[in-house]
Structure formats: C-alpha cells, structure tokens
Amino acid sequence: METTVSPITAATPSKSSLLTGRIISVICILFLLFDAIAKIMRESHSVKGTIFLGYGENMVQIIGTILLVCTVIYIIPRTAVLGAILITGYLGGAIAIMIRVGQPAYFPVVFAILVWLSLYLRDGKIKSLFNFGGKW
Question: What was the pLDDT predicted at 134?
Fold first, then answer.
C-alpha cells in the first residue's frame, strides 16, 4: 500500500485580503517589537510588570530576547509560519501566567488570533490549511 501526499494548492489572496493581512501584521509586529525592546532595555514598566507576574528582575531581558527572536522569525516571509507558532507558544505562556496571578487573559488570546489571522489573510497556503468551506 502506497501513501501519497498531495501538495497544498494555494489560492492567491485578493488585494483587499492581502492589504488587511499586512496591516494586521504590521500592528502586531510593532507591538511585539516595542514589548521586546522595552524588556531588553529594562524599561521600568516592563520590569514592574514582570515582577508582578512572579518573575525575577533578572528574567526581563531573557524574556525580551526570546520575544525579539520570535518576532524577527515572524517578520521574514519564508519563516513567518514558524514565527507565528513560536509567538503562539510565547503567548500561551503569557495566558498561563495571567491566569495564575488572577489577571484577565483575553489580551494574549486576541493577540494570538490576530497573528494567525494576518497570516490567513495574506498567505494562500495557510488559507488552504484552514479551509472553513466558505470564501473569505
């Protein structure tokens, strides 16, 4: 018995879908870069927030560096899917921490959805993977 895997046929996204996806991506990227750089530079609000969430002050730069690497991988078109997966993992950790300290976790959930929505709108292969049966 032989198993064959058929390649994903990707439809080209419409101009409006592509533009919307790019706008959402830029907004997400700017926020992620701002957050990562603020942590790396040990900006006081980032340090206080990290301590409030239960991490030591010495972890702020490490967390910022991890986020920066994930974001750079997301920015590069050829590795954007890997970057989205890594950012989803990062945000999953944020969700767990927020729940642990009794804070609302809606922001990282919505942000992860936006990261993937931007890829869905601008990448036909992603759209083919998540075919919801309708035309978007």
Answer: 58
